[in-house]
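Record 1 of the preview.
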Amino acid sequence: MAVTVADIVNVMNQHYPPALAEEWDRVGLSVGVPSAEVHRVGFAVDPCEATVREAIERGAQMLITHHPLFLRGTHSVATTTGKGAWVTDLIRSGCALFSAHTNADSAADGSGAALANLLKLENVRPLEPSSFDQTLGIGTVGELPLTMSVRELAQRIKALIPETPAGITLGGDPERIVRTVALCPGAGDSLFAQVRAAHADVYVTADLRHHPATDHLWNGGCPLIGLSHFASEWPLLVNLRRRVSVELGLSAYISTIVTDPWAERI
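->
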């Protein structure tokens, strides 16, 4: 029996309910015909020229991304804009586009859980529980099976995620011994209060701004491990692919194209 775009949307919505998305978010099907057949699916962090071209070249009939293509309102998909050109290429090639963003962040096997799984954290729970379900939420807190220093943990993370020009940064004491880890893939410097409440020994996140980070450290907060936004969320793609591949038996690939905006470090 043929698998359709609608079948994949149903599986994704079952495991990453749209109700978990933040009010400002825009998740779900952006491009495509629900009744169209799908034989191959691509997974990427960002919908952009490179990942759209890759999906078309690799014969995918659907591209599933973490970030939405249109997070804010738009009035045009003319090819005079980058996003308009990508939508046009997707339509011409018969490739649907679907996103699971903050709903995937808050899900049981969402972005925080994916990074926690890589680190083999135990006793995991949400950093900021969702009002939808207290067992779900943004970010993750858990314990390392064996303690290590902040620097050693950063080196371990570096070996598990894609390498990007922005690299990994450390704030605070790099020799502090870590047992309890707080994680928030993506932009997480709005959650410092939750990190303190969790009594974390280190906080791993991305997009750390100067003032929130320094205020946290200067007020006795735990050390920080700063990742790039793309690299911190890339592990989620493994979980997304597993859901679709296992439940629907489809051929699928995970894009390894680095879509961080930073192309070089000098």
